[in-house]
Amino acid sequence: QPLVEVLRVTQRYGGKDRQFTAIQDVNLTIGDGEFVALLGPSGCGKSTLLRIITGLNRPSEGLVRYRGQALHGVNPHATIVFQTFALFPWLTVQENVAVALQARGVTYDEAQKRAIELIDLVGLDGFEQAYPRELSGGMRQKVGIARALAVDPELLCLDEPFSALDVLSAETLRGEVLELWTSGKLHIRAVLMVSHNIEEAVFMADRIVVMDKNPGRVITEIPINLPHPRD
Ligand code: ADP
Ligand code: ADP
């Protein structure tokens, strides 16, 4: 059984008289164990599709199934890592991670404990009490990843996670994300990564889904047959 099925999904934005079709008739399947990259020009609806798959947007038409069940509302097993990190600047690294846990009903003490473990997992031990502004771009994105992992996701969605980083930091972090994915330390069953970098997609993913715009739709899918770091 696939993890995610997107069935004839259309998303329109705007009111009655000014409607805009962001994506139209999109079908997509993500298998259990798969790393899928979503590639396409700016504005083709990649983020929209991510929001629909995680249940943050309700599609205008069509259906998303998760493990065979129609998705209603936010998918508690899915999480998104954002391009611009979206950290709270007034909170420390540890607090930024812990709030994600507390928001899900975990007690304060348990959240602090788990946050420290996750910060260690992404290689930021020693920076628990630092503020985001004191960290490099790469380190900030690691905090973003630790916070996303706090919910113990099965489906990890990454929305251009390396685009805001310089070339070297992006390179390092790509390797570290692949290592997390292959380590088996987490319960992640699939990764969906939005990218506009074809080399990055080929390097990281098992399959590339290519979208085009006006309206946003899937135009082709490319399996990657390279020997993978995971094999
Ligand atoms: P991508 O991630 O591929 O750049 P998006 O999903 O962000 O594409 O956007 C697809 C299209 O939908 C764009 O034209 C964008 O301007 C529009 N759009 C995205 N979100 C909204 C919204 N909340 N309201 C109206 N239009 C939106
Ligand atoms: P940037 O986006 O600024 O290039 P990087 O994460 O690639 O950020 O690293 C920038 C600097 O921060 C480097 O000098 C690196 O050694 C240091 N750094 C990154 N992660 C850690 C860490 N976990 N512990 C100590 N130093 C780190």
TrEMBL record:
Q: Which domain of life is it from?
A: Bacteria
GO molecular function annotations of the record:
ATP binding; ATP hydrolysis activity
**Keywords of this protein's UniProt record, alphabetized?**
ATP-binding, Nucleotide-binding, Transport
Show where the ABC transporter domain sits: 4-231
Q: Does the keyword Secreted apply?
A: no
Q: What stretches pass through the bilayer?
A: none
Name of protein: ABC transporter related
Intact protein stretch covered?
A: 7 to 237 of 438
